[in-house]
Amino acid sequence: MSLSREAYRELAAVVGDAYISEKEHILSGNRVKTPEIPFEYHSADAILLPGSTEEVQAIVKICNRYGISFIPTVSGCSADAFAKHANSVIIHLKRMNRIIEINEEDRFAVIEPGVRQVQLYPEVRRRGLSYTAASVGPGGSVLANFTSTSGDNHTQHGTSRANRYLLGVEMVLPDGEIVRTGSLQTGSGWFCPDGPGPGLRGIVKGYFGIHGQLGIVTRAAIALDPCRGPREIRAEGVSPHQRVYLDSDCSKVRVFTFKDLGSLCDAMVKLGEAEIASTVQKFFYLPMTLMMTDSANAFWEKWNSGIKEEMAMPLVVHLATRSVEELEYEETILGDVARENGGVRVRPEIESWWDEHMDFFMVFGVLQRVLRLGGGWAPIKLGADSIRHMCEVGESISSYIHDYTDTGILFDAPESFQIVPMEYGHSAHIELLFMYDRTNPSVRPEVGKFTARARASDIADHFHAEMPGCLNQTAEQLGPLYSNYHVWLRRIKESFDTNNVANPML
Ligand SMILES: Cc1cc2nc3c(=O)[nH]c(=O)nc-3n(C[C@H](O)[C@H](O)[C@H](O)COP(=O)(O)OP(=O)(O)OC[C@H]3O[C@@H](n4cnc5c(N)ncnc54)[C@H](O)[C@@H]3O)c2cc1C
Protein backbone atom coordinates (compact mmCIF):
# COMPACT_ATOMS: atom_id res chain seq x y z
CA MET A 1 0.00 0.00 0.00
CA SER A 2 1.23 3.51 -0.67
CA LEU A 3 0.48 6.79 1.04
CA SER A 4 -2.19 9.08 -0.39
CA ARG A 5 -0.64 11.59 -2.82
CA GLU A 6 -1.78 14.40 -0.58
CA ALA A 7 -0.02 12.99 2.50
CA TYR A 8 3.14 12.24 0.50
CA ARG A 9 3.25 15.79 -0.91
CA GLU A 10 2.88 17.29 2.57
CA LEU A 11 5.66 15.09 3.96
CA ALA A 12 7.93 15.89 1.00
CA ALA A 13 7.35 19.60 1.57
CA VAL A 14 8.80 19.22 5.09
CA VAL A 15 12.05 17.42 4.28
CA GLY A 16 12.50 18.22 0.58
CA ASP A 17 12.34 15.71 -2.29
CA ALA A 18 15.91 14.55 -1.70
CA TYR A 19 15.06 13.24 1.76
CA ILE A 20 11.90 11.22 1.18
CA SER A 21 11.44 8.07 -0.85
CA GLU A 22 8.83 5.46 -1.62
CA LYS A 23 10.92 3.66 -4.21
CA GLU A 24 10.79 -0.10 -3.87
CA HIS A 25 14.56 -0.64 -3.86
CA ILE A 26 14.97 1.94 -1.05
CA LEU A 27 12.10 0.54 1.02
CA SER A 28 13.25 -3.05 0.61
CA GLY A 29 16.59 -2.12 2.16
CA ASN A 30 14.72 -0.84 5.20
CA ARG A 31 12.67 -3.89 6.08
CA VAL A 32 13.56 -6.21 8.88
CA LYS A 33 14.55 -9.47 7.33
CA THR A 34 17.22 -10.95 9.47
CA PRO A 35 17.38 -14.66 10.11
CA GLU A 36 16.68 -14.55 13.83
CA ILE A 37 13.30 -12.86 13.35
CA PRO A 38 10.99 -15.73 12.47
CA PHE A 39 8.12 -13.65 11.05
CA GLU A 40 7.48 -11.28 8.17
CA TYR A 41 7.49 -7.53 8.68
CA HIS A 42 5.62 -5.13 6.45
CA SER A 43 7.34 -2.68 4.25
CA ALA A 44 7.08 0.97 5.25
CA ASP A 45 5.19 3.07 2.73
CA ALA A 46 7.86 5.76 2.72
CA ILE A 47 11.11 6.63 4.43
CA LEU A 48 12.00 10.17 5.52
CA LEU A 49 15.28 11.68 6.63
CA PRO A 50 14.58 14.82 8.68
CA GLY A 51 17.39 17.21 9.49
CA SER A 52 16.06 18.99 12.57
CA THR A 53 13.72 18.76 15.57
CA GLU A 54 11.25 21.06 13.79
CA GLU A 55 11.15 18.75 10.77
CA VAL A 56 10.53 15.75 13.03
CA GLN A 57 7.72 17.71 14.70
CA ALA A 58 6.12 18.62 11.34
CA ILE A 59 6.28 14.97 10.15
CA VAL A 60 4.67 13.74 13.37
CA LYS A 61 1.84 16.27 13.05
CA ILE A 62 1.14 15.18 9.45
CA CYS A 63 1.18 11.50 10.52
CA ASN A 64 -1.42 12.31 13.19
CA ARG A 65 -3.64 14.09 10.67
CA TYR A 66 -3.59 11.17 8.22
CA GLY A 67 -3.44 8.35 10.82
CA ILE A 68 -0.03 7.15 9.56
CA SER A 69 2.19 5.22 12.02
CA PHE A 70 5.77 6.41 12.35
CA ILE A 71 8.86 4.52 13.47
CA PRO A 72 12.12 6.27 14.36
CA THR A 73 15.28 4.38 13.46
CA VAL A 74 19.05 4.83 13.35
CA SER A 75 21.12 1.65 12.86
CA GLY A 76 18.07 -0.61 12.86
CA CYS A 77 19.78 -3.29 14.94
CA SER A 78 16.49 -3.74 16.78
CA ALA A 79 13.52 -5.38 15.06
CA ASP A 80 11.30 -2.71 16.61
CA ALA A 81 12.96 -0.09 14.41
CA PHE A 82 10.99 -1.27 11.35
CA ALA A 83 7.42 -1.11 10.05
CA LYS A 84 5.16 -3.79 11.48
CA HIS A 85 2.02 -3.06 9.49
CA ALA A 86 0.73 -1.18 6.49
CA ASN A 87 0.32 2.62 6.48
CA SER A 88 3.63 3.33 8.22
CA VAL A 89 6.60 5.56 7.56
CA ILE A 90 10.15 5.20 8.81
CA ILE A 91 11.70 8.36 10.23
CA HIS A 92 15.41 7.73 9.73
CA LEU A 93 17.44 10.01 11.99
CA LYS A 94 20.88 9.49 10.49
CA ARG A 95 21.20 13.08 9.25
CA MET A 96 20.79 14.40 12.79
CA ASN A 97 24.27 13.28 13.80
CA ARG A 98 25.92 16.19 15.59
CA ILE A 99 27.80 16.03 18.86
CA ILE A 100 26.49 19.33 20.16
CA GLU A 101 28.65 19.64 23.25
CA ILE A 102 31.15 17.71 25.33
CA ASN A 103 31.29 19.40 28.71
CA GLU A 104 34.49 18.22 30.40
CA GLU A 105 33.94 20.19 33.58
CA ASP A 106 30.43 18.97 34.40
CA ARG A 107 31.07 15.70 32.56
CA PHE A 108 28.24 15.33 30.10
CA ALA A 109 27.78 15.13 26.32
CA VAL A 110 24.82 16.47 24.34
CA ILE A 111 24.10 14.45 21.22
CA GLU A 112 21.62 14.01 18.39
CA PRO A 113 20.10 10.60 17.58
CA GLY A 114 22.33 9.88 14.58
CA VAL A 115 25.56 10.04 16.62
CA ARG A 116 27.13 6.57 16.51
CA GLN A 117 29.26 4.92 19.18
CA VAL A 118 32.28 5.18 16.87
CA GLN A 119 31.81 8.96 16.72
CA LEU A 120 31.40 9.73 20.40
CA TYR A 121 33.51 7.15 22.19
CA PRO A 122 36.95 8.20 20.84
CA GLU A 123 36.05 11.87 21.37
CA VAL A 124 35.29 11.46 25.07
CA ARG A 125 38.07 8.95 25.66
CA ARG A 126 40.74 11.30 24.40
CA ARG A 127 39.48 13.78 27.01
CA GLY A 128 40.00 11.17 29.75
CA LEU A 129 36.26 10.46 29.94
CA SER A 130 34.06 7.50 29.09
CA TYR A 131 30.47 6.25 29.14
CA THR A 132 28.57 3.00 29.49
CA ALA A 133 28.72 1.88 25.89
CA ALA A 134 26.55 -1.01 24.69
CA SER A 135 28.12 -3.85 22.77
CA VAL A 136 25.89 -3.32 19.75
CA GLY A 137 28.85 -2.23 17.66
CA PRO A 138 30.44 0.98 16.42
CA GLY A 139 27.42 1.83 14.21
CA GLY A 140 24.82 1.78 17.00
CA SER A 141 23.12 5.02 18.02
CA VAL A 142 24.31 6.26 21.42
CA LEU A 143 21.12 8.25 21.97
CA ALA A 144 18.79 5.35 21.05
CA ASN A 145 20.60 3.18 23.55
CA PHE A 146 20.41 5.73 26.38
CA THR A 147 16.84 6.84 25.73
CA SER A 148 14.90 4.09 24.00
CA THR A 149 16.41 0.58 24.30
CA SER A 150 17.75 -1.48 27.17
CA GLY A 151 21.23 -0.05 27.90
CA ASP A 152 22.96 -2.93 29.65
CA ASN A 153 26.68 -3.11 29.04
CA HIS A 154 29.78 -5.06 29.96
CA THR A 155 31.29 -2.48 32.27
CA GLN A 156 28.26 -1.94 34.49
CA HIS A 157 29.71 -3.73 37.54
CA GLY A 158 31.83 -0.66 38.33
CA THR A 159 29.33 1.81 36.82
CA SER A 160 25.69 1.26 35.84
CA ARG A 161 23.22 0.98 32.96
CA ALA A 162 22.43 3.71 30.47
CA ASN A 163 19.14 4.79 32.12
CA ARG A 164 21.08 6.02 35.19
CA TYR A 165 23.12 8.36 32.99
CA LEU A 166 20.32 10.10 31.12
CA LEU A 167 20.20 13.87 31.78
CA GLY A 168 18.22 16.57 29.93
CA VAL A 169 16.16 15.43 26.93
CA GLU A 170 14.43 17.15 24.04
CA MET A 171 11.59 15.08 22.66
CA VAL A 172 8.77 15.33 20.11
CA LEU A 173 5.72 13.73 21.71
CA PRO A 174 3.38 11.50 19.65
CA ASP A 175 1.05 14.47 18.99
CA GLY A 176 3.88 16.74 17.83
CA GLU A 177 4.39 18.81 20.98
CA ILE A 178 8.06 19.43 21.82
CA VAL A 179 9.03 18.89 25.48
CA ARG A 180 12.32 19.63 27.16
CA THR A 181 12.96 17.83 30.44
CA GLY A 182 14.93 18.46 33.63
CA SER A 183 17.12 21.54 33.94
CA LEU A 184 16.63 22.19 30.23
CA GLN A 185 13.07 23.43 30.64
CA THR A 186 14.15 26.31 32.86
CA GLY A 187 16.96 27.33 30.57
CA SER A 188 19.58 26.09 33.05
CA GLY A 189 21.34 23.75 30.65
CA TRP A 190 21.43 20.01 30.17
CA PHE A 191 23.05 18.84 33.39
CA CYS A 192 20.05 17.62 35.42
CA PRO A 193 17.43 15.02 34.41
CA ASP A 194 14.62 15.94 36.80
CA GLY A 195 12.83 18.96 38.18
CA PRO A 196 11.57 21.40 38.93
CA GLY A 197 8.40 19.35 39.18
CA PRO A 198 7.94 15.68 38.47
CA GLY A 199 10.66 13.81 36.58
CA LEU A 200 9.87 12.46 33.13
CA ARG A 201 12.65 9.88 32.93
CA GLY A 202 10.18 7.07 33.49
CA ILE A 203 8.20 8.23 30.46
CA VAL A 204 11.22 8.84 28.25
CA LYS A 205 13.02 5.63 29.04
CA GLY A 206 11.67 3.62 31.98
CA TYR A 207 13.98 0.73 32.67
CA PHE A 208 14.02 -1.19 29.45
CA GLY A 209 13.19 1.43 26.80
CA ILE A 210 9.91 2.42 25.15
CA HIS A 211 11.16 1.95 21.55
CA GLY A 212 9.74 5.19 20.23
CA GLN A 213 6.18 4.54 21.44
CA LEU A 214 5.96 7.74 23.50
CA GLY A 215 7.69 10.04 21.02
CA ILE A 216 10.97 10.75 19.27
CA VAL A 217 13.97 12.00 21.21
CA THR A 218 15.77 14.59 19.12
CA ARG A 219 18.56 15.57 21.52
CA ALA A 220 19.76 14.16 24.82
CA ALA A 221 22.50 14.75 27.34
CA ILE A 222 24.28 11.76 28.85
CA ALA A 223 26.51 11.79 31.91
CA LEU A 224 30.17 10.85 31.45
CA ASP A 225 32.52 9.06 33.85
CA PRO A 226 36.26 9.50 34.17
CA CYS A 227 37.72 6.69 32.07
CA ARG A 228 39.11 3.73 33.95
CA GLY A 229 42.38 2.46 32.62
CA PRO A 230 44.49 4.49 30.20
CA ARG A 231 42.87 7.00 27.87
CA GLU A 232 45.17 5.89 25.03
CA ILE A 233 44.28 2.62 23.34
CA ARG A 234 47.00 0.90 21.29
CA ALA A 235 45.76 -1.09 18.34
CA GLU A 236 47.79 -3.53 16.27
CA GLY A 237 47.01 -5.50 13.14
CA VAL A 238 44.24 -5.35 10.60
CA SER A 239 40.72 -6.68 11.00
CA PRO A 240 39.94 -9.53 11.66
CA HIS A 241 43.35 -9.97 13.30
CA GLN A 242 43.46 -6.72 15.25
CA ARG A 243 44.55 -6.57 18.86
CA VAL A 244 43.76 -3.74 21.25
CA TYR A 245 45.98 -3.02 24.22
CA LEU A 246 45.38 -0.96 27.31
CA ASP A 247 49.02 -0.22 28.13
CA SER A 248 49.06 0.75 31.77
CA ASP A 249 50.31 -0.35 35.16
CA CYS A 250 46.77 0.34 36.33
CA SER A 251 44.92 -2.13 34.09
CA LYS A 252 44.87 -5.91 34.44
CA VAL A 253 42.60 -8.70 33.23
CA ARG A 254 42.05 -11.95 35.13
CA VAL A 255 39.90 -14.86 33.98
CA PHE A 256 38.88 -17.69 36.31
CA THR A 257 36.71 -20.78 36.02
CA PHE A 258 34.52 -22.15 38.79
CA LYS A 259 33.21 -25.62 39.41
CA ASP A 260 29.58 -24.51 39.48
CA LEU A 261 27.33 -21.46 39.24
CA GLY A 262 26.83 -21.34 43.03
CA SER A 263 30.50 -20.70 43.80
CA LEU A 264 30.83 -18.27 40.88
CA CYS A 265 27.77 -16.44 42.22
CA ASP A 266 29.33 -16.17 45.71
CA ALA A 267 32.49 -14.74 44.17
CA MET A 268 30.52 -12.09 42.22
CA VAL A 269 28.65 -11.04 45.37
CA LYS A 270 31.93 -10.76 47.33
CA LEU A 271 33.58 -8.64 44.62
CA GLY A 272 30.62 -6.29 44.80
CA GLU A 273 30.77 -6.08 48.59
CA ALA A 274 34.47 -5.22 48.35
CA GLU A 275 33.63 -2.57 45.70
CA ILE A 276 36.53 -3.48 43.48
CA ALA A 277 36.97 -3.98 39.71
CA SER A 278 35.67 -2.17 36.67
CA THR A 279 34.20 -5.19 34.86
CA VAL A 280 32.92 -8.43 36.41
CA GLN A 281 30.98 -10.88 34.30
CA LYS A 282 30.10 -14.53 33.99
CA PHE A 283 30.59 -14.65 30.26
CA PHE A 284 28.89 -17.04 27.80
CA TYR A 285 31.24 -19.56 26.24
CA LEU A 286 29.59 -19.89 22.81
CA PRO A 287 29.94 -16.20 21.84
CA MET A 288 33.39 -16.21 23.42
CA THR A 289 34.59 -19.05 21.17
CA LEU A 290 33.15 -17.29 18.12
CA MET A 291 34.85 -14.06 19.13
CA MET A 292 38.18 -15.84 19.57
CA THR A 293 38.09 -17.30 16.05
CA ASP A 294 37.79 -15.76 12.63
CA SER A 295 36.41 -18.58 10.48
CA ALA A 296 33.93 -21.42 10.79
CA ASN A 297 36.76 -23.97 10.63
CA ALA A 298 38.72 -22.21 13.36
CA PHE A 299 35.56 -22.10 15.48
CA TRP A 300 34.91 -25.83 15.21
CA GLU A 301 38.53 -26.63 15.92
CA LYS A 302 38.46 -24.60 19.12
CA TRP A 303 34.98 -25.75 20.12
CA ASN A 304 36.00 -29.40 19.77
CA SER A 305 39.21 -28.82 21.72
CA GLY A 306 37.31 -28.94 25.01
CA ILE A 307 36.73 -25.22 25.53
CA LYS A 308 33.07 -25.86 26.41
CA GLU A 309 34.00 -27.97 29.41
CA GLU A 310 36.92 -25.74 30.37
CA MET A 311 34.96 -22.48 30.15
CA ALA A 312 31.50 -23.55 31.31
CA MET A 313 31.61 -21.18 34.29
CA PRO A 314 34.09 -18.39 33.45
CA LEU A 315 34.43 -15.18 35.44
CA VAL A 316 36.09 -12.32 33.57
CA VAL A 317 37.40 -9.48 35.71
CA HIS A 318 38.99 -6.23 34.55
CA LEU A 319 40.81 -4.24 37.21
CA ALA A 320 41.26 -0.66 36.08
CA THR A 321 42.38 1.71 38.81
CA ARG A 322 43.78 5.19 39.24
CA SER A 323 47.06 4.18 40.90
CA VAL A 324 49.43 1.22 41.04
CA GLU A 325 48.79 0.90 44.78
CA GLU A 326 45.04 0.68 44.17
CA LEU A 327 45.63 -2.02 41.56
CA GLU A 328 47.75 -4.04 44.01
CA TYR A 329 45.00 -3.71 46.61
CA GLU A 330 42.29 -4.85 44.19
CA GLU A 331 44.43 -7.72 42.92
CA THR A 332 44.98 -9.01 46.46
CA ILE A 333 41.25 -8.96 47.20
CA LEU A 334 40.41 -10.58 43.86
CA GLY A 335 42.93 -13.35 44.57
CA ASP A 336 41.41 -13.98 48.04
CA VAL A 337 37.84 -14.03 46.70
CA ALA A 338 38.75 -16.41 43.87
CA ARG A 339 40.67 -18.76 46.17
CA GLU A 340 37.98 -18.83 48.87
CA ASN A 341 35.35 -19.75 46.28
CA GLY A 342 37.34 -22.29 44.29
CA GLY A 343 38.10 -20.08 41.25
CA VAL A 344 41.02 -21.26 39.13
CA ARG A 345 42.92 -19.07 36.63
CA VAL A 346 42.41 -20.23 33.04
CA ARG A 347 45.18 -21.03 30.58
CA PRO A 348 47.37 -18.03 29.62
CA GLU A 349 46.21 -18.40 26.00
CA ILE A 350 42.62 -17.60 27.00
CA GLU A 351 43.48 -14.91 29.52
CA SER A 352 45.78 -13.13 27.09
CA TRP A 353 43.00 -13.10 24.46
CA TRP A 354 40.86 -11.14 26.93
CA ASP A 355 43.80 -8.89 27.72
CA GLU A 356 44.08 -8.03 24.04
CA HIS A 357 40.35 -7.28 23.66
CA MET A 358 39.38 -5.90 27.03
CA ASP A 359 38.42 -2.52 25.80
CA PHE A 360 34.84 -3.37 25.17
CA PHE A 361 34.45 -0.83 22.46
CA MET A 362 36.67 -3.03 20.37
CA VAL A 363 34.96 -6.13 21.66
CA PHE A 364 31.82 -4.69 20.09
CA GLY A 365 33.49 -4.87 16.72
CA VAL A 366 34.58 -8.39 17.54
CA LEU A 367 31.12 -9.21 18.86
CA GLN A 368 29.79 -9.06 15.30
CA ARG A 369 31.63 -12.35 14.74
CA VAL A 370 28.95 -13.97 16.84
CA LEU A 371 26.51 -13.31 14.01
CA ARG A 372 28.57 -15.62 11.76
CA LEU A 373 27.25 -18.79 13.33
CA GLY A 374 23.84 -17.69 14.50
CA GLY A 375 23.22 -15.28 11.66
CA GLY A 376 21.51 -12.91 14.06
CA TRP A 377 21.41 -11.72 17.61
CA ALA A 378 18.53 -13.43 19.37
CA PRO A 379 19.19 -13.35 23.09
CA ILE A 380 16.36 -13.99 25.52
CA LYS A 381 15.69 -13.14 29.18
CA LEU A 382 17.60 -9.81 29.46
CA GLY A 383 16.00 -9.13 32.83
CA ALA A 384 17.55 -7.82 36.00
CA ASP A 385 17.31 -8.45 39.72
CA SER A 386 19.79 -9.46 42.44
CA ILE A 387 22.90 -11.45 41.50
CA ARG A 388 21.54 -14.44 43.41
CA HIS A 389 18.19 -14.29 41.65
CA MET A 390 19.88 -14.07 38.25
CA CYS A 391 21.92 -17.16 39.17
CA GLU A 392 18.69 -18.90 40.17
CA VAL A 393 17.29 -18.07 36.71
CA GLY A 394 20.52 -19.34 35.12
CA GLU A 395 20.30 -22.64 37.04
CA SER A 396 16.70 -23.15 35.93
CA ILE A 397 17.60 -23.08 32.21
CA SER A 398 18.88 -26.65 32.41
CA SER A 399 15.38 -27.84 33.42
CA TYR A 400 14.03 -27.24 29.89
CA ILE A 401 16.84 -26.45 27.44
CA HIS A 402 18.00 -30.07 27.13
CA ASP A 403 14.75 -30.99 25.38
CA TYR A 404 15.94 -28.71 22.58
CA THR A 405 19.72 -29.25 22.65
CA ASP A 406 19.48 -33.07 22.88
CA THR A 407 17.19 -33.17 19.85
CA GLY A 408 19.50 -30.96 17.80
CA ILE A 409 17.07 -28.03 17.54
CA LEU A 410 19.43 -25.73 19.40
CA PHE A 411 23.20 -25.66 19.38
CA ASP A 412 24.35 -27.76 22.32
CA ALA A 413 25.54 -25.00 24.65
CA PRO A 414 23.17 -25.02 27.66
CA GLU A 415 25.37 -22.84 29.88
CA SER A 416 25.75 -20.12 27.24
CA PHE A 417 24.22 -17.36 29.33
CA GLN A 418 25.93 -14.35 30.79
CA ILE A 419 25.34 -12.63 34.12
CA VAL A 420 26.67 -9.10 34.54
CA PRO A 421 26.41 -7.45 37.97
CA MET A 422 25.86 -3.71 38.09
CA GLU A 423 26.59 -0.95 40.61
CA TYR A 424 28.97 -3.17 42.58
CA GLY A 425 26.49 -6.01 42.74
CA HIS A 426 23.37 -4.14 43.82
CA SER A 427 21.66 -5.70 40.84
CA ALA A 428 22.55 -7.90 37.86
CA HIS A 429 21.50 -8.64 34.28
CA ILE A 430 21.09 -12.02 32.58
CA GLU A 431 21.18 -12.87 28.89
CA LEU A 432 20.80 -16.31 27.29
CA LEU A 433 22.19 -16.50 23.77
CA PHE A 434 21.10 -19.59 21.86
CA MET A 435 21.79 -20.54 18.29
CA TYR A 436 20.14 -22.77 15.73
CA ASP A 437 20.31 -23.67 12.06
CA ARG A 438 18.63 -20.69 10.46
CA THR A 439 18.77 -22.31 7.01
CA ASN A 440 16.44 -25.10 8.15
CA PRO A 441 12.81 -23.86 7.98
CA SER A 442 11.48 -26.79 10.04
CA VAL A 443 13.60 -25.69 13.01
CA ARG A 444 12.02 -22.24 13.35
CA PRO A 445 8.68 -23.31 14.85
CA GLU A 446 10.60 -25.42 17.36
CA VAL A 447 12.73 -22.42 18.29
CA GLY A 448 9.49 -20.49 18.83
CA LYS A 449 8.35 -23.27 21.16
CA PHE A 450 11.62 -23.06 23.07
CA THR A 451 11.35 -19.32 23.69
CA ALA A 452 7.68 -19.73 24.72
CA ARG A 453 8.64 -22.52 27.11
CA ALA A 454 11.46 -20.45 28.63
CA ARG A 455 9.04 -17.58 29.28
CA ALA A 456 6.30 -19.85 30.63
CA SER A 457 8.78 -21.46 33.00
CA ASP A 458 9.95 -18.06 34.28
CA ILE A 459 6.37 -16.81 34.75
CA ALA A 460 5.37 -20.01 36.57
CA ASP A 461 8.38 -19.63 38.88
CA HIS A 462 7.69 -15.88 39.35
CA PHE A 463 11.21 -15.18 38.09
CA HIS A 464 12.23 -11.67 37.07
CA ALA A 465 14.17 -13.16 34.18
CA GLU A 466 12.75 -10.90 31.50
CA MET A 467 11.71 -7.25 31.65
CA PRO A 468 8.69 -5.68 29.99
CA GLY A 469 9.63 -2.61 27.92
CA CYS A 470 7.35 -1.14 25.28
CA LEU A 471 3.67 -2.01 24.86
CA ASN A 472 3.66 -5.32 23.00
CA GLN A 473 2.71 -8.98 23.50
CA THR A 474 5.67 -9.55 25.81
CA ALA A 475 4.57 -6.72 28.11
CA GLU A 476 1.05 -8.21 28.19
CA GLN A 477 2.45 -11.56 29.30
CA LEU A 478 4.99 -10.27 31.81
CA GLY A 479 2.94 -7.34 33.15
CA PRO A 480 1.26 -9.23 36.00
CA LEU A 481 4.73 -10.08 37.38
CA TYR A 482 5.58 -6.37 37.49
CA SER A 483 2.62 -4.73 39.31
CA ASN A 484 0.44 -4.81 36.18
CA TYR A 485 3.00 -2.81 34.22
CA HIS A 486 1.09 -3.44 30.96
CA VAL A 487 -2.09 -1.82 32.33
CA TRP A 488 -0.25 1.32 33.45
CA LEU A 489 1.78 1.58 30.25
CA ARG A 490 -1.37 1.20 28.15
CA ARG A 491 -2.99 4.11 30.03
CA ILE A 492 0.10 6.27 29.56
CA LYS A 493 0.30 5.41 25.87
CA GLU A 494 -3.38 6.15 25.35
CA SER A 495 -3.06 9.57 26.96
CA PHE A 496 0.17 10.54 25.13
CA ASP A 497 -0.72 8.98 21.78
CA THR A 498 -4.47 9.35 21.25
CA ASN A 499 -4.24 8.31 17.57
CA ASN A 500 -1.93 5.33 18.35
CA VAL A 501 0.55 6.33 15.66
CA ALA A 502 3.88 6.19 17.55
CA ASN A 503 5.39 2.80 16.66
CA PRO A 504 2.27 0.83 17.70
CA MET A 505 2.76 -2.90 18.24
CA LEU A 506 -0.65 -3.98 19.50
C1 LIG B 1 25.14 -7.70 18.14
C2 LIG B 1 24.27 -6.83 19.00
C3 LIG B 1 24.64 -6.54 20.30
C4 LIG B 1 23.84 -5.73 21.11
N1 LIG B 1 24.30 -5.44 22.37
C5 LIG B 1 23.58 -4.62 23.15
C6 LIG B 1 24.05 -4.27 24.46
O1 LIG B 1 25.12 -4.68 24.91
N2 LIG B 1 23.30 -3.45 25.22
C7 LIG B 1 22.11 -2.94 24.76
O2 LIG B 1 21.50 -2.17 25.48
N3 LIG B 1 21.63 -3.27 23.55
C8 LIG B 1 22.32 -4.09 22.72
N4 LIG B 1 21.82 -4.43 21.49
C9 LIG B 1 20.43 -3.98 21.12
C10 LIG B 1 20.24 -2.61 20.37
O3 LIG B 1 20.71 -2.71 19.06
C11 LIG B 1 20.89 -1.48 21.07
O4 LIG B 1 20.21 -1.20 22.27
C12 LIG B 1 21.17 -0.21 20.26
O5 LIG B 1 21.95 0.68 21.06
C13 LIG B 1 20.04 0.54 19.76
O6 LIG B 1 20.58 1.49 18.84
P1 LIG B 1 20.28 1.31 17.33
O7 LIG B 1 21.03 2.32 16.56
O8 LIG B 1 20.49 -0.10 16.94
O9 LIG B 1 18.74 1.69 17.35
P2 LIG B 1 17.58 1.22 16.38
O10 LIG B 1 17.60 -0.27 16.21
O11 LIG B 1 17.61 2.03 15.15
O12 LIG B 1 16.33 1.62 17.29
C14 LIG B 1 16.09 0.93 18.49
C15 LIG B 1 14.67 1.25 18.99
O13 LIG B 1 14.65 2.59 19.46
C16 LIG B 1 13.72 3.38 18.72
N5 LIG B 1 14.38 4.66 18.48
C17 LIG B 1 15.49 4.89 17.74
N6 LIG B 1 15.82 6.19 17.80
C18 LIG B 1 14.91 6.79 18.60
C19 LIG B 1 14.71 8.13 19.03
N7 LIG B 1 15.53 9.11 18.65
N8 LIG B 1 13.67 8.39 19.85
C20 LIG B 1 12.80 7.41 20.26
N9 LIG B 1 12.95 6.13 19.86
C21 LIG B 1 13.99 5.82 19.05
C22 LIG B 1 13.45 2.60 17.44
O14 LIG B 1 12.15 2.82 16.94
C23 LIG B 1 13.60 1.16 17.92
O15 LIG B 1 12.39 0.70 18.47
C24 LIG B 1 22.60 -5.23 20.63
C25 LIG B 1 22.22 -5.52 19.32
C26 LIG B 1 23.03 -6.30 18.50
C27 LIG B 1 22.59 -6.58 17.10
CATH topology of the largest domain: Vanillyl-alcohol Oxidase, Chain A, domain 3
**Which architecture name of the largest domain does CATH use?**
3-Layer(aba) Sandwich
Helical residue percent?
Answer: 25-40%
Quickly count the domains: 3
CATH level-1 class of the largest domain:
Alpha Beta
Q: N-to-C terminal Cα separation, in Å?
A: 20 Å
Determine the oligomeric state from the structure.
single chain
Unreliable parts: none
Evaluate the radius of gyration.
Answer: 23 Å
For the largest sheet, list the strands in their spatial order: 5-6-10-8-9
For the biggest sheet, the summary is: 5 strands, antiparallel
Our count of helices gives 18
CATH homologous superfamily designation of the largest domain? FAD-linked oxidases, C-terminal domain
Word description of this protein:
- The relative contact order is 0.11.
- The chain is α+β, with helices and mostly antiparallel strands and 506 residues long.
- The protein has a 5-stranded antiparallel β-sheet. Strands 1-2-4-3 form a 4-stranded mixed β-sheet, covered by helices on one side. The protein has a 4-stranded antiparallel β-sheet with strand order 15-16-14-17, with helices on both faces.
- The two termini are 20 Å apart.
- It has helices spanning 5-15, 24-28, 53-66, 117-125, 142-147, 201-204, 261-273, 285-292, 296-310, 324-340, 348-355, 360-367, 370-374, 387-396, 402-405, 443-460, 473-478, 485-496; strands at residues 20-21, 46-48, 69-73, 88-92, 99-103, 108-111, 129-130, 166-172, 178-180, 216-223, 225-226, 234-236, 243-245, 251-257, 279-282, 314-320, 344-345, 379-385, 417-422, 427-433.
- The protein contains 18 helices and 20 strands.
- The chain is globular, with a radius of gyration of 23 Å.
- Helix 1 (5-15) runs antiparallel to helix 3 and helix 7 runs antiparallel to helix 14.
- The model has no long low-confidence stretch (mean pLDDT 92).
- 34% of the residues lie in helices and 18% in strands.
- The protein folds into 3 domains: 5-92, Uridine Diphospho-n-acetylenolpyruvylglucosamine Reductase, domain 2; 99-226, Uridine Diphospho-n-acetylenolpyruvylglucosamine Reductase, domain 3 (2-Layer Sandwich); 240-460, FAD-linked oxidases, C-terminal domain (Vanillyl-alcohol Oxidase, Chain A, domain 3), CATH 3.40.462.10.
